Amino acid sequence: MEKAENTKILIIDDEQSICEGCKLILSDEGYAVDFCMTGRQGLDQIRTQAFDLVLLDMKLPDVEGMELLETIRRENLGAHVIVMTGYSTVKNAVEAMKLGAFDYVSKPFTDDELLLAVAKALENRRLKQENLALRQQLNQRFDFSNIIGENPRILEIFDAIARVAPTDSTVLLSGESGTGKELFARAIHAHSNRAARQFLAVDCSTFSSSLLESELFGHVKGAFTGAVRDKAGIFEVADQGSLFLDEIANLDINIQAKMLRAMEKQAFKPVGASHLKKSDVRIIAATNRDLKTMVDEGTFREDLFYRLNVFPIFIPPLRKRKDDIPKLIYHFLRVYCRRSGKKVDGFSDDALEMLVNHHWPGNVRQLKNVVERLVIMADRPVVDYQNLSDHWHIRQDEQPEVIPETLAELKSVKQDLLENRFGQIEKAFLQKALMAAKGNITQAAHRVGMQRSNFSALMKKHQLSADSARTDPSPSDQR
Question: What is the reported pTM?
Fold first, then answer.
């Protein structure tokens, strides 16, 4: 709590005895107290000095207390206000509260009444300042700068989040596993009006249907075997905050109906209860599956899909934003060097090229884990192709770690295989032939059974030259 000697209080009252009496009482508690006897003097003081609290009389010789209170609020002068009045009525008190007063005391008041009112006002001010500081920290922690990416599609997502975050609209994040959907969800919460409240995340794939219902909505004592006491559900705990429902596609069809009712009515019924509970929760959902296809197949409720799909945001897979991969690699490199205390300066060109051109079926999560492993195993300042081969164990013929679930995903994997993995083999093939022929293109083409024109066309495709082949060994030859 803020120390009393650091707390400045201003008394504005036209009765000198009131001013001096209040100053004496508050000074004895260690507060720094000043007073003035007109409204205009008081306003000048507030505008030029930083007061934590103002004790304001409602009846002043030059300015009405209500008018002065309204000015303090309109100009956002920062001080909490306690009004003092000898004409105390409920109407006056309510009006003063509407204009921004924290509390009021009726004349004549005792020393204890004054000290109690002042303590309450200062405690409230402290809590508001702490909440503001917490919100600023959250904004910094989950600012867009915390999400690495300058790809145009990522910048579009930043813009979408900036637009939707201040609202209470439901957001549906879709994208493959490992693309960082929870990080984007936290960014939405941090930029929302609920930032100072709870952000709770639930993975819908980790609970059985019966257990998930209890986790989400809670239960009452005796609702089922083992329910020995009432338990609050996540919807209740997250009241006034944000609830992130990851892998929403895994919800059982019966839970889907209850989820829809909770979202539409902002109310839910705990397992075994006979009454509803209210909860104002902002839903952010995420899925790595095509919910529309699931609706067509009858495994996901159409009404819930439309309730979730108010503001859809698609997070692209890492292979679709390769220009961000070097930034991510060096970001994770700094993170894990700092955590491990090791000094790794970076990656050789051929190692970085291999990392950039990898398919990354596990997306950012997989990339993060690979960099962590490479840092742990690194024994030199630069990670080169040989280190990558030794510690990553990537093979050109490895199977995808994630099996495509749709025709579009299958085509994407096929295209990636052709463009990247086969492309790497093709490039190594050309380099090996040129090396064997000591840079002579005609001889290199003849050795591999190709026409010179076709061989040259492939060289151009991979930006190879005869001179570079004479000096630059291929990655495969370095093994």
Answer: 0.57
